[in-house]
Structures are given as C-alpha cells and as structure tokens.
Amino acid sequence: MSVLALERSTAINAVLQASKVCQAVFRNLADAKAITKKDKTPITVADYSAQAVINTILGKTFPNDPIVGEEDTDELRGDERKPLREKVLELTNSILDVPLDENKLLSAIDRGTHPGGIKGRMWTLDPIDGTKGFLRGEQYAVCLALIIDGQVELGVMGCPNLPFDLKNKESERGCLFVAVKGQGAFQRKFSSSDELPIHFANISSPSEATFCESVEAGHSSHDDAAKIAALLEISKPPFRVDSQCKYCCISRGDANIYLRLPTNVQYIENIWDHASGSLLVNESGGTISDLYGKALDFSLGRKLKANTGIVASHPNIHSQVLDAIQQVIKKENINN
Ligand SMILES: Nc1ncnc2c1ncn2[C@@H]1O[C@H](COP(=O)(O)O)[C@@H](O)[C@H]1OP(=O)(O)O
Ligand SMILES: [Mg+2]
Ligand SMILES: [Mg+2]
Ligand SMILES: [Mg+2]
C-alpha cells in the first residue's frame, strides 16, 4: 500500500460527500440566504454542512487527528439561529449514514477549531472556498489537506462547477483534484474514479502566459496585476475565476500564472486557502512562493503569518514573474 493511501481515499470520499451538500444548495441558490460573519465575509448553510460532513467522516477514520477548519459555530448558536441550525442539520443528515443530533452537529463543526502549528498531524479544511463565487452561481471549491510537521503531504479539492475540459462548453462539470507529496497530481470526474495525471503547461517566456486572478478585486489587486502583466509583456486578458479553482486550472494547463496580490496590508492569508492548492502546484510541475519568493510556511498556526501574497507559475518563468512583482511593489512603496 502506498504512503497515505487510507488518508487519500478517506479525504476523496469526504470531499465528494461535502460537494454533494454544496451541489444540493447550489441547485436552489435563491433559498441559500447568506449570513455575514464577524469578519464581514458571507457564510451559508452549505459551508456549515460541508464542514460537518467532512469533520464527521475524518473523525470516524482518524479520531485523533485535529482539524484546522475555517468555520465554527459562534454564529450558529442561540434561539435566533434555530431555523438555520435546523436547515444545516437536515442537509447534513441527508448525506451522512448515521444521523447527527443538534449537539453532535455543533461539536462536529467545532472539531475544526484547532490552532494549527508545527507539531504532528493535522487536517486543514475550507468547506467552501470562494463563498462569494458560490453565491453568484460561479466557481467554488471544497478544499482539504493533511499537514504533517508543518509540511503539506496530501491535498484534495472538489470543484463541483468546474468543467472537466475547459475548452469544451459541453464538458461535464464536477472535477476532483488530488495530490500526495512525491506521488504526482491527478484529476478525475465526480462521476468516475478514473484518475488522469495533470501537469503545468510548458512555457518558455512570460509573454506567452495567461494569468489567473480573483474575480473579487477586494481579494487581489487587479490594478497591480495589470501593471505586472504589462512589464512581462503579457497580451492575453486575465483569466478571472473564483476560489482555489485557480490552482486547479494552472495545474492542468488551462492558464500559466496565479497572482494573489494583497489589497490590504492587514489581511493575512489562511492556511486552508492555500494548503491543498500549493501541493497540487508542486506535484504538477509548478513553483509556488509568496511575492518575495519565500516558501509558504504552514507551520505557524491558522494563518500564513510569514508570507505576503501568493504567486504560482512554471519554474521556467517564476523568477521573471517575481522580478516584475518587485518592480511594481517597490514603485508603490515609494509613492505611498
Ligand atoms: N479581503 C480578502 N483578501 C483576500 N482573500 C479573501 C478576503 N476575504 C475573503 N477572502 C478569501 O478569498 C478566497 C476566495 O477568493 P478568490 O475567489 O478571490 O480566490 C476565499 O478563501 C475567501 O474566503 P472564503 O473561503 O470565505 O470564500
Ligand atoms: Mg469564508
Ligand atoms: Mg477560503
Ligand atoms: Mg470558505
């Protein structure tokens, strides 16, 4: 049996089950009223339920593994939230073999409150990455990774709305991506367990590249990306797509560069937003770093405290992309 085989199959099953939760809500998006969390970002019944499903499945096979998950139950408790809680419970129990009661539901979600750190095994989970994309009816991803002693060893991403072949409009939607350190990166359809290896597209000059960025200009600076693209003589328009689907797209050759350029110095990236994607990039032949060329450090708690922004690209062009980023950042620092 290959290394982490049980973790791999359990994570794939968990992500597929959580993706079913998201797809059910997505089919009736008008009913999926979002509430706003303390950090002013939206959350829906699907985010809570997907976290409950994954944490329950992981808890059965790996009862001692802690989970660093995005969501907690702070805003799901109290009389005022009873109707939302009941919806989350109903949705969760429509997927799980053994139904949960309300207390078990809340404690399943709160298994995700681990603080992270450098020691031992831990999972990190984003039950819906790109909740804004989900609410717009566009792209989103269910993202799960296993971190051991600060290193990402396994990453699984479910993209329920992503076409298997982006160039073919009729292509089936629903792709799952999986990578284990040292074992390569793969894509499969939700509807079939056949896995196909994926690779970064070969590229020799940044000028040939298509770059990915957020749809939301508040998450990544479109202005800075345009300046960087101009310096690199990139002529193709940006490929804007929500969520960690960007990592999946570059890893299978749909685009060549992923830029995540801070819009606000106070924002520090979360580990669950980049753990699975960073391994997918590395295992499909890409390079990933922060804007200063520093490796992403997943060992410092729930956030990437030592890193600023993200850039992923083919190793042939990574240093040129970093140089262009430095030029734009330096200019801004001088002007501010
Ligand atoms: N101010 C922000 N800056 C950068 N990323 C953000 C910000 N607010 C939320 N996010 C996160 O951005 C990611 C999706 O954005 P994008 O589609 O731009 O890549 C998500 O991880 C989202 O969290 P969430 O998981 O809650 O959706
Ligand atoms: Mg969120
Ligand atoms: Mg996220
Ligand atoms: Mg999320």
Structure description:
By secondary structure, the chain is α+β, with helices and mostly antiparallel strands. The chain folds into two domains: 5-197, Fructose-1,6-Bisphosphatase, Chain A, domain 1, CATH 3.30.540; 206-335, D-Maltodextrin-Binding Protein, domain 2 (3-Layer(aba) Sandwich), CATH 3.40.190. It is 33% helix and 20% strand. The chain has nine helices and 14 strands. The strands form three sheets. Strands 3-4-5-6-7-8-9 form a seven-stranded mixed sheet, sandwiched between helices. A hairpin with a 6-residue loop joins strand 8 (185-189) and strand 9 (196-197). Helix 1 runs antiparallel to helix 2 (45-61), helix 2 packs across helix 3 (82-93) and helix 2 (45-61) crosses helix 4 (102-110). The chain is globular and about 55 Å long. Bound molecules: adenosine-2'-5'-diphosphate (A2P) and magnesium ion (3 copies). Residues 47, 70, 126, 128-129, 131 line the site of one magnesium ion (MG).
| Order of helical and strand elements | HEEHEHHEHEEEEEEHEHEHEEH
Instruction: Round the mean pLDDT to the nearest integer and report it.
Output: 97
At CATH level 3, the topology of the largest domain is Fructose-1,6-Bisphosphatase, Chain A, domain 1
How many helices?
9
Q: Main beta sheet: strand number and arrangement?
A: 7 strands, mixed
